[in-house]
Amino acid sequence: MAGSPALLLLLALGLCCPGVRSQRYKMTAKFRDSSIKHPRVGQRLELECLAAKEDSGVFWIRLDKGGTLHFIVFISSLHRTTFEGNEKTSTRFEATKDSRFYRLVVKSFTPQDEGNYFCLMNSNQMLYFSPGQPAFFPVTTTAAPTTPAPTTQGGITEKDPCLKTLDPETNKEKELDFVCDIFIWVPLAGACLLLLIALAVTIVLCQQTRRRRCRCKR
């Protein structure tokens, strides 16, 4: 019996640490108006997330150009909203729920709102996330004076050997890994703390029961 609490603790830690990238439930985040490719300055931009389960509750977050994550709002299954700073409303955003659709509205789109928008769901200590929906202003190019391209002997244009193409899949995986780290450790720490408290109470009760039996034998 002395080793039972330790064994229970190891089993509980195994159950507390499921994989966070399971795709049992799929989620999507997109512009509500499918004709929109790039938002305009001052535009009212509406996004919607199709959640995996109607009773889940959804987080909306934004990944800016610098790679920083910004929490926007949590929409509960009871239609309640919690914005940054534990506020119920926001001057910049609106959030609603309609069946399995969790909608986010940027009231007036500005440069500080640019980024990739994700929706997340935490269910039974499993984290489910949508692909990112890019929301950036269209790139504008200005005419530049043409300069002759460098050439080698024979008129062949030289290529810069240092040019590299970024792998979008690698960047996306890094973004999702960072998001997962934020949302998995908080509920994990709470669950394991509760387990340790329960084990401590069980040990104390067992010791008290053993003492009572010893007294009765005398």
From TrEMBL:
InterPro entries, sorted: CD8_asu, Ig-like_dom, Ig-like_dom_sf, Ig-like_fold, Ig_sub, Ig_V-set
Subcellular location: Cell membrane
Domain of life: Eukaryota
Membrane topology (UniProt): Single-pass type I membrane protein
The keyword Cell membrane is annotated on this UniProt entry: yes
Any single biological process term in GO: cell surface receptor signaling pathway
The keyword Lipoprotein is assigned to this record: yes
GO CC annotations on file: external side of plasma membrane
Ig-like domain location: 18-130
Signal sequence segment: 1-22
Pfam families referenced in this protein's UniProt entry, alphabetically: V-set
Transmembrane segments: 182-205
Keywords recorded for this protein, A-Z: Adaptive immunity, Cell membrane, Disulfide bond, Glycoprotein, Immunity, Immunoglobulin domain, Lipoprotein, Membrane, Palmitate, Signal, Transmembrane, Transmembrane helix
Protein name as it appears in the record: T-cell surface glycoprotein CD8 alpha chain
Native source species: Fulmarus glacialis (Northern fulmar)
